[in-house]
Automatic annotation (TrEMBL):
Protein name: Membrane-bound lytic murein transglycosylase B
Entries under InterPro entries matching the protein: Ig-like_fold, Invasin/intimin_cell_adhesion, Lysozyme-like_dom_sf, MltB-like, SLT_2
Pfam families, alphabetized: SLT_2
Organism name: Streptomyces brevispora
Keywords (A to Z) from UniProt: Signal
CDD domains given in the database record: Slt35-like
Record-annotated Transglycosylase SLT domain positions: 176-216
GO terms, molecular function: peptidoglycan lytic transglycosylase activity
Signal peptide: 1-30
GO annotation terms (biological process): carbohydrate metabolic process; peptidoglycan catabolic process
Length: 565
């Protein structure tokens, strides 16, 4: 399903010599027996190659800037966070908190994995520049979506839409989403609620970091082992160039880092401040350039020097892009208040009440509003049925995503009550945002009958110790058959205020014990009910059986126990 990629480009202002020196320094820092798994031709390592279909990011493009050669601390020194350090070693506060919280959470549920938060930081740096320098709100959700390019096979993997655009806004192809760049199909399986708000949002750093941690720890991986760590990283993005880049940042962050305010993190040099990581057009595909003259810089392996970066182009067939530097679409202008989604609100939905088995006559309707309070069109809204209920929208769906129209409103499909009575909730949210949801309480009432009568005309009689012939009744509601209506049957006294009679005819429970009240009864599709077997008892006389329906309909039937001959 995924297209195969050639050697990836080293982005940024790094020269071949600096890149070679960085790789050499990284290689020297590895423990014995832990060489780089990638060879010069960038082929996957043996035994560490997941299929492209399983890559968390769909093998989407990534930032390849290397960390500076001067590390924030001496090798082997404490990894406690210093107060200050180089600009590159600073991680925005919310982003760092999410990584460390994930390490703590995973340590409590999967201690054998030994997930280091620095590995999450390295992947977050490479995937999104630490959520574009920490541009997140107080809950850790990105201020605007971080989307990779459409994975349409044009220089990238070909992954057709799997989420109807719910996460990435693209109903034709999938795109990597959020600060950890999950493709929707992977998020559907691995998505987590890392901040405890009841949602699994790939645009939230707490949710995305925990999902990444769970994904990296899949199976029996021990991430304190270099081999398992490499396999985990390659499962995230199937490229040895990607692995080398993540390794370099992992080692860099292990030597020390420090916290910086949200929104002040260092962005990759090939993206200016405020630029999104491919919010629609994405990153260009890369092709391998013709061989260039060798550089005089020494190779980290003592052989030939690394080849210079190949030339990127907007498409695989265009070789005219600037050498050594990828081209990007122009900056996306900041949206005006009239274009900015401020939230969704109720648009006049009435009371949501229905009888069990029926459809709700009222339909939920919401309106998306912009920064001025006016209507906003083409906003994706997700309606979700929650709670202990079997209610669902048409087609049996409990979650439906639709877009608002020109007037800013969208109406949910018809809601069917199901059979379970009681209350449940429907939530309407702006898809992929942390904006407050609109909640609706819906009530399912039991089916009712306003009349119930015995169908036979023969007076029920039985001899002592015998059983009565079947007693059948039929319930109606406004003259129509009342199916599925709850019925209570009770043997009552002949008092002015009848109570349960402890003498005379009786039913039997599952253990064969006499009982004189039954509650788990209901009418069939024809509104009829045949009562369970009625035992006459030993005492002759006339007794009364009262049947009461949900809705208050009542009928009293006389049962005669004849005297012994």
């Amino acid at each position: 399903m995924a297209a195969q990629f050639g050697r990836r480009l080293r982005r940024g202002a790094t020269t071949t010599a600096v890149a070679a020196a960085a790789v050499a320094a990284l290689s020297a820092s590895q423990a014995p027996g832990s060489p780089l798994v990638a060879s010069e031709d960038d082929q996957p390592a043996a035994g560490a190659t997941p299929s492209d279909d399983n890559a968390a990011s769909g093998n989407s493009p990534y930032f390849t800037d290397l960390p500076p050669l001067n590390t924030p601390n001496k090798p082997g020194a404490s990894v406690n966070l210093p107060v200050t350090g180089s600009a590159e070693s600073g991680i925005p506060a919310s982003i760092l908190a999410a990584y460390k919280k994930t390490q703590q959470t995973v340590a409590g549920t999967d201690p054998a994995c030994r997930l280091p938060w620095q590995l999450l930081a390295a992947i977050g740096k490479v995937e999104s520049g630490q959520a574009r320098g920490g541009r997140v709100d107080a809950q850790g959700t990105t201020l605007s979506p971080i989307l990779g390019p459409a994975l349409n096979g044009q220089g990238f993997a070909l992954i057709k839409d799997t989420d109807n655009g719910a996460y990435d806004g693209d109903s034709t192809h999938d795109r990597a989403v959020g600060p950890m760049q999950f493709i929707p199909s992977t998020w559907e399986t691995w998505g987590q609620d890392g901040n405890g708000d009841g949602r699994k949002d790939p645009n939230n750093i707490y949710d995305a970091a925990l999902a990444a941690g769970r994904y990296l720890c899949a199976g029996s991986r021990d991430l304190s082992l270099a081999g398992d760590r490499d396999r985990a990283v390659l499962s995230y993005n199937h490229s040895n160039e990607y692995l080398r880049t993540v390794r370099s940042w992992f080692e860099y962050y292990k030597r020390g880092t420090h916290e910086v305010p949200d929104g002040t993190g260092i962005l990759p040099v090939d993206l200016g401040a405020g630029r999104d990581r491919g919010t629609g057009s994405g990153r260009p595909a890369t092709t391998t350039s013709p061989s260039a003259s060798p550089s005089p810089s020494p190779s980290p392996h003592g052989s030939t020097t690394p080849k210079p970066p190949s030339k990127p182009s907007p498409s695989p067939t265009n070789p005219d892009g600037p050498a050594g530097k990828p081209s990007y679409p122009p900056p996306t202008p900041e949206p005006t208040p009239s274009q900015t989604l401020a939230g969704v609100k109720d648009a006049g939905t009435g009371e949501l009440t229905a009888t069990a088995g029926d459809a709700f006559t009222e339909r939920i309707k919401v309106r998306a509003r912009n920064g001025f309070g006016g209507p906003l069109a083409k906003v994706s809204v997700t309606f979700t049925v929650t709670g202990d209920t079997d209610a669902a929208f048409d087609g049996g769906k409990r979650t439906v995503t639709l877009a608002t129209g020109a007037d800013g409103t969208v109406t949910a499909p018809v809601l069917n009550a199901g059979e379970k009575t009681g209350e449940f909730t429907v939530r309407a949210t702006a898809t992929g945002t942390s904006l407050p949801a609109v909640g609706y309480t819906a009530t399912v009432t039991a089916r009712q009958a306003d009349a119930i009568d015995r169908t036979g005309t023969t007076k029920p009689t039985a001899a002592p110790g015998a059983t009565f012939a079947d007693v059948e009744v039929k319930a109606t509601y406004k003259g129509a058959v009342a199916h599925g209506v709850a019925v209570t049957a009770t043997m009552i006294t002949d008092d002015e205020k009848p109570v349960e009679n402890d003498k005379g005819p009786y039913f039997e429970d599952g253990d064969g014990h006499p009982v004189r009240t039954l509650t788990d009864l209901s009418t069939d599709a024809d509104g009829k009910l045949v009562l369970p077997e009625i035992h006459a008892g030993d005492t002759a006389g006339t007794y009364k059986l009262r049947l009461t329906t949900e809705g208050g309909a009542t009928v009293v039937i006389e049962l005669t126990v004849e005297a012994a001959a």
